[in-house]
Amino acid sequence: MAALVVVGLLCTAALQLINFVRTAQFNEDIVNGTLVLLSQRLQQDPAALPDLARRLDAQLSISQLSDASKDHYEQLRLQRGRVVIKTSDDGRAAKVLRHMGDGKVLNVGLHTVTDVQAQASAYLLLEDWQRSGEPLAQFLSRMQPEFGFPLSVVAMEDLFLSDSDYARMQYGDVLVRIAIEGHQAEALVKIPGQPQALRLGPIKAFNPYSWQAILVVAVIGFMLLGLGVYWVVNSFEVRLRKLEQATSRLAQGHLNARVAVHGQDAVQRLGEAFNKMAEHIQRLISIQREMVRAVSHELRTPVARIRFGLQIIEDSVLDDAFVSKQLGGMDADIQELDELIDEILTYARLEEGGPLLDFQKANVADLALQVVEEARPPETIQVRYVGQAVEQALYAEVEPRYVHRAIQNLVGNALRYAQHRVNVSCTIGSDTCRVDVEDDGPGIPEQDWDKVFTAFARLDDSRTRSSGGYGLGLSIVRRIIYWHGGRAMVSRSDDLGGAKFSLIWPRRHHD
Asked: Which residue numbers delimit the Histidine kinase domain (predicted)?
């Protein structure tokens, strides 16, 4: 509402300013014709100055351009043939200036504006026509551009004159008629020897609410409203963009992301709700993180005591083969439990917001080759590196420790299900890095490809708990590649027929 009031006030001010200019232009156009007639008469007969002043009921004088006005802008207007009207501070007198040529300026001082000036203009126009010797129509056509109102010839019988007005015009008087509603006026003088009259006008009153002025004000109003709407929308857009940035940061794991809240509008309420949600998420994740760490660390202590106790028992019952076998199985279970705790800690660290990754230039092909060389496969399975040569591979910006861990998890997963072969390949392009790990095992059904990277996921009998693993290895791989800005995929190997896991991420890291 306040904005509409401001726009209304500005439009009113614009209308006043436009009308101020239009009024000045209107007055200049009305008096210009009379000043042209005076200038022409004085150029022909300078001695006629007193008579013209008397007939016009005005003060007339001729001065140099530099003396008539000290204002440079007014001098330029006079030189271009424009009329300059200067009004006194009290508004009771006016001074009208027009350039006559040769550096001279006609000065007309007026104290009152009456029908005397209209009558003088009609007489001067009629006299100049008589002196010119031109046909009246040709004379009026030549003079029309100097006047701000029409000049025409009208038959006396078409004027609907009263007897007294008709008699006055027959005696040579100038008849000035003003419409009853006051919106226009005209001056009439009979053409000698003809049943016709010379009409000056009609001169229409100044209309402050003409369609041109209303159109300009409407355009200004729409522009102001448009600017106001743009300012409001842009303000909302900027604040929503900041909210979007905070949301993206929160999604990337920056749990301390917040938005500045100010104002009393819907965006402010949305920002407050976002900040409360972010605080709640941060608190829940903090609690979860502390719980996972506490439980994992607390489990390590009893696991270590159990392992120590098993070692003592093993040393005491070396002769009992059955007991030794059972103790060996228990030791393997404890080892598995220890590895599970380590996997849980790693997964929690990657899943609970952005980890602190130290990105540096590294040879990913060399990392993949290291994983292959470190692998300890069963005798029946062969692990080979079949990718791009290490010395030809481009360097990439990665966190070497985590990328090594991701490839290692994929190779370990492949070893659990492969029958004879596991192939590891690495390709470093100009923009992306790609690592593929393939095996000749039973593969993964296509309907399970979307959930294979889910934590603790269990698939069909071909990849059951008896094959080993905890359901976290591939989830860790997915999170590592996620923090590198890439994605992990699974498909079927065309070469070996089993599963094919692929990691793709940008070669250059972007914050």
From this structure: 294-509
